[in-house]
Amino acid sequence: MKRLVALTVVVAFFSLGCYNTYYIPRSELGTLQEPPEAGKATVKDSAGQGVQVDEETRLFVRSTGGKRYPITPFNFKMTESQLVASDRDYILDLGELREPAEVDHMSNWKTGLWIAGGVAVAATIIGLIAWASATSGGSQKSQ
What we know:
By secondary structure, this protein is of the alpha+beta class.
């Protein structure tokens, strides 16, 4: 049981984390087509805040219908009418995409709180089960 709980916590931490999402205009998305010399680029989100993007950063565009398309930073091409992401086999019409693209950064403190909350709920459930099993036996008097 301990191994299962440990494995669940590890998988949750590395794959089901909480993210901070930043919205960047299409002009800033265009700057992420080519890798910079430093390996990291900084773009401005719609609030004017600098957002750092590297090859591991999660980058998305959305269609007008709401479908979210992941795009690999520095590995796509934008023309006047299309966005081509050959590694994902996407050829997307820019007219069908919503204006702000999305940059997701993992939030360590939100993910930590999420995991701590899950552990607290699991501990509470296990405690209630242990309490119920310990107190469920009735006392019998022998005559």
